[in-house]
Design goal:
Layout lengths: L11 H12 L5 E6 L4 E4 L13 E2 L2 H5 L8 H13 L4 E9 L5 E12 L5 E10 L13 E2 H13 L6 E8 L2 H8 L1 H18 L4 E5 L4 E6 L4 H15 L3 E3 L2 E3 L3 E8 L6 H17 L5 E3 L2 H22 L5 E10 L5 E12 L3 E3 L1 H11 L2 H20 L6 E6 L1 H5 L3 H12 L6 E6 L7 H14 L2 E7 L16 E4 L12 H15 L3 E5 L4 H7 L6 E3 L7 E2 H9 L10
Parallel strand pairs: 7-9, 13-14, 16-18, 18-19, 19-20, 20-21, 21-22, 22-23
Antiparallel strand pairs: 1-2, 1-6, 2-3, 4-5, 5-6, 8-10, 8-13, 9-10, 11-12, 15-16, 15-23, 15-24, 16-17
């Protein structure tokens, strides 16, 4: 039975009518709460943004529970209970809600209670304001956004403090891979999780902001380089592991750029732009790194921008400036030439020959590796077919990236080139660097299976340097494992590297996987390496990467040269 109000007070129906009238004239959401009969009603306009079950309820907890951000549920229900008990005439609190897009929305609740003569609340009248519209909140993470960062920096700079402060710009590496694999909603959850972790790690004299796309900024006041390095180390240690959200595992690293006040700039946007430049440079240098801005770094960035434009121009001009070099691969047992690895080289019209470590990351980041990769495949298979007219079982190894394998027409194009040059499929070895495994292991298993059935050999390059587990190899249909050159340097029979190589070779052979040792440069290294019985050797001892003409003259021109000399 519905209980009656004090006749001198406004009743629930009258309050509801007022709410409905106000709803058309404001962006706020008005609510009325009948404490006596425990009925809560809110403005209909809130249903446009939040997926609430109607505008009226008599179960407040069930009504709101799934829309309140987990960390704020305690403060929400505690504060609503305070309003209900009428411990004060006016109540105010802020919390985060999740809207229909699963975005985090900061809102404020304000409510006043109408009490009877005994001081007991009978009706609560109030409104909810989306403070994200008026302040500077990022909807995905609930963190402060770029506008708020700019505002805070301007206020800080106006006070002209004399202590060192910094802007750290932190970008998630290869975040597009996560979006492609799991979808954008999952990607938003990853961004939210990373933001929460950074917020939990930073010290009290720092604030974290969500800025563009997959980037965050940390405004770290009264600091120094050592403290900044320590903070990034903590963030990096957290990121360098697999994480789980909704029963899906993901892996991603972060790159960070830092600019210091007043050393690098005394204007807010200039300081931010220089930190962002340093972050971009960290990504270009290989990712998962921290870089401090410097004039030298800025000059290097300008050089890189020039190189990037020249790379695009080379591709537009039918790959002018690109060429393939070939490094011999020999059988460890008798030094006989097995084949060669095709290695991409590029000459800048302004700077001359550029290291692959400098231009290949840009090709991958920009997606240009798709076009260049097709050119590499065609050129390498064309030369392989020609050399097979002299060395019948000559094999060619071609490096491919995860990005290329993701392309739907990659296998179609490869098949087209195989048919064009009438080359045997088992003459081709596709090499994938070990660091690519973390991107999407299930996808790679499927791709490797596809190529195995198709008749192409698959190799894991740079083994021992990435995120691998020897256990993975049981599931991957791999033909060859290439042990990275870093394990060959300063090699002795009693060293850890020798034990590692010996163990890997024995294990691979036990599961019918062949092993190639890279980076063998001296007779002493070869003598030690050969004791573990690898299948193939690749290194300067047997031959450096050479142009097509020089490789042919050195290794293929006459039958006598097929036994490569040390």
């Amino acid at each position: 039975m519905r209980m009656e109000y004090n006749s001198k007070m406004i009743n629930f129906d009258q309050a509801s009518t007022i709410c409905d009238l106000l709803d058309n004239n404001t962006e706020d959401y008005f609510f009325v709460w009948d404490i006596i009969n425990d009925i809560f009603k809110i403005s209909p306009s809130i249903l446009k943004e939040f997926d609430l079950e109607g505008t009226t309820t008599n179960n407040l907890k069930k009504y709101w529970d799934k829309f309140i951000y987990d960390e704020d549920k305690e403060v929400f229900f505690y504060s609503m209970n305070k309003i209900k008990l009428g411990t004060s005439d006016m109540n105010f609190f802020e919390c985060r809600l999740l809207n229909k897009k699963n975005e985090i929305i900061w809102v404020s609740f304000r409510g006043s209670s109408l009490k009877d003569k005994n001081g007991h609340s009978q009706i609560i009248f109030g409104y909810i304001t989306n403070i994200g519209k008026n302040t500077k909140i990022d909807f995905i993470t609930g963190l402060l956004n770029r506008s708020k960062l700019q505002e805070d920096m301007i206020n800080f700079f106006n006070k002209r403090f004399d202590f060192i402060s910094s802007i750290m710009v932190i970008g998630i590496d290869d975040f597009k891979n996560i979006n492609e694999k799991y979808g954008y909603l999952f990607g938003d959850k990853v961004i939210r999780s990373v933001g929460e972790k950074i917020a939990s790690i930073i010290p009290k004299n720092a604030n974290v902001y969500k800025i563009d796309g997959d980037k965050f900024a940390v405004f770290y006041k009264d600091t120094n380089k050592q403290k900044i390095k320590s903070l990034f180390k903590s963030i990096k240690e957290y990121m360098n592991a697999f994480h789980e959200i909704d029963n899906n595992y993901y892996f991603c690293t972060v790159s960070c750029g830092v600019a210091l006040y007043p050393n690098d700039a005394v204007k807010s946007m200039e300081l931010f732009e220089r930190a962002n430049s340093a972050m971009e440079f960290a990504k270009i240098k290989g990712k998962n790194k921290l870089e401090f801005f410097s004039k030298k770094l800025y000059s290097r960035k300008i050089r890189l921008l020039t190189l990037q434009e020249q790379l695009r121009e080379s591709i537009r001009n039918n790959f002018q400036g690109f060429q393939l070099y070939y490094q011999p691969q020999v059988k460890a047992s008798n030094y006989e030439l097995k084949g060669a690895e095709a290695l991409l080289r590029w000459n800048s019209p302004e700077f001359g020959q550029i290291s692959p470590l400098e231009f290949i990351p840009f090709l991958e980041e920009s997606g240009l590796i798709i076009q260049v990769g097709k050119w590499v495949i065609r050129e390498a298979l064309k030369m392989c077919r020609y050399w097979q007219s002299i060395v019948e079982d000559f094999k060619i190894s071609i490096n491919v990236s995860y990005i290329q394998l993701k392309e739907e027409d990659f296998k179609i194009y490869l098949d087209k080139c195989i048919n064009e040059f009438q080359i045997k499929k088992n003459s081709i070895i596709l090499e994938l660097t070990e660091s690519c495994w973390a991107s999407d292991f299930k996808f790679l298993i499927k791709k490797f299976d596809d190529f195995e059935r198709y008749g192409i050999n698959m190799a894991i390059d740079d083994f021992g340097t990435g995120y691998s587990s020897l256990n993975y190899l049981r599931n991957l249909p791999v033909d060859i494992v290439k042990i990275d050159r870093s394990f060959v340097r300063q090699l002795t029979e009693k060293s850890y590297n020798f034990t590692f190589i010996e163990y890997v070779v024995k294990l691979m052979h036990s599961i019918n996987i062949r092993v190639c040792i890279e980076g063998v440069e001296t007779s002493e290294e070869f003598e030690i390496i050969n004791k573990v019985n690898p299948d193939y050797i690749q290194g300067y001892l047997f031959g450096k990467p050479e142009s097509t003409k020089v490789f042919y003259e050195k290794f293929i021109n006459t039958k006598e040269q097929l036994l490569v000399k040390i």
